[in-house]
Design a protein that fits this description.
Blueprint (H helix, E strand, L loop, with lengths): L3 E4 L2 E4 L10 H5 L2 E9 L2 E2 L2 H14 L8 H15 L4 E8 L17 E8 L2 H10 L1 E7 L14 H12 L4 E5 L5 E4 L3 E5 L5 E3 L10 H12 L4 E3 L4 H5 L3 E6 L3 E8 L2 E2 L7 H17 L2
Parallel strand pairs: 7-8, 7-14, 11-12
Antiparallel strand pairs: 1-2, 1-6, 3-4, 3-5, 5-6, 8-9, 10-11, 10-13, 13-14, 14-15
Helix pairs in contact: 6-8
């Protein structure tokens, strides 16, 4: 069965899915996106993702293309047509199609909407988590509004390529003060030498990760001491544990940074327990 995409009101085979050459998302990165994890065909962390989507659109003055309820129907129908139970749903909304000009269109245009669904091998992701992954570091060189989930991801793509070439899975951006901001497609965490769970606060220039937000709640319910406080690269290298979070990675232990072992060089108990608890919560609240 061919994969099915939703493009501007129509479900079409992915091979036939196209957008206009003057779509502002294509030409100017004038677009936002969201990614939901799928568990048993249901959308994980639904409230958080919809709330962030609406905020991102509002920050760019792009209208919601339809109501939240209608968009939920579209997303679920895309999942149903693709017959995928475990995977990811990608949504992209651009300002729309207009004659190329940096300024917004003078006449209102309809936002352009694309939805795709992909399969995830949960057994493979669990095996990766059990082994742990490596990250590399790279200088922070992104724009000052990383809190908006835009498709302008060239620095992130270059960072991911650097990670791949080094045999790592993720790259952590490090700012001019030596502080880790976040990953190219994830939020960064450590369990420091005092046993405190730490991640960067959202007043900094980072994405307000939905998985991050849920995990903060899960960790506090589990009785862990949690601080939304930055950490340096040096603190990460001497941490008891490190891990990343995101809709794709969920909670993924980090065992090396720039080739240097973290903790004992294997996934730590806090990260693995938080992964279990997060997946449990995500499955229970998915819609």
């Amino acid at each position: 069965m061919s994969r099915i995409a939703y493009v501007n009101g129509r479900f079409v085979p992915k091979a036939d899915a196209v957008v206009h050459i003057e779509d502002r998302g294509y030409q100017l990165a004038d677009a936002v996106y969201e990614v939901w994890a799928l568990f048993d065909g249901k959308l994980a962390d639904p409230e958080g993702h919809f709330a962030r989507l609406e905020r991102s659109l509002g920050e760019l003055s792009i209208d919601m293309p339809m109501s939240r309820a209608a968009l939920t129907v579209v997303l679920k129908e895309a999942v149903r047509r693709n017959r995928i139970r475990e995977g990811m749903v990608y949504l992209q909304i651009s300002r729309g199609v207009a004659r190329r000009d940096h300024a917004f269109p003078t006449e209102p245009v309809a936002p352009a909407v694309v939805v795709t669904v992909s399969r995830v091998d949960r057994a493979a992701t669990e095996a990766r988590a059990a082994k742990g992954v490596g990250v590399v570091t790279t200088p922070e060189n992104r724009w000052g509004r990383c809190d908006i989930k835009t498709v302008g991801l060239l620095p992130n793509a270059l960072a991911k390529q650097k990670a791949r070439e080094a045999g790592a899975v993720e790259a952590w951006f490090v700012d001019e003060m030596g502080l880790v901001t976040e990953g190219a497609s994830s939020n960064a965490w450590i369990v420091d030498g005092d046993g405190v769970l730490r991640t960067r606060d959202t007043q900094a220039n980072i994405l307000r990760g939905v998985t991050r937000l849920t995990l903060l709640d899960v960790a506090r319910e589990a009785g862990l001491k949690v601080e939304e406080r930055p950490f340096t690269l040096e603190e990460a290298l001497t941490a008891r544990e490190a891990f990343i979070t995101g809709a794709g990675s969920l909670v993924l232990p980090v065992v090396t940074v720039d080739g240097k072992m973290i903790g004992g060089g294997s996934p730590g108990p806090v990260a693995m327990e938080l992964r279990r608890l997060y997946i449990e919560r995500a499955k229970a609240t998915a819609v």
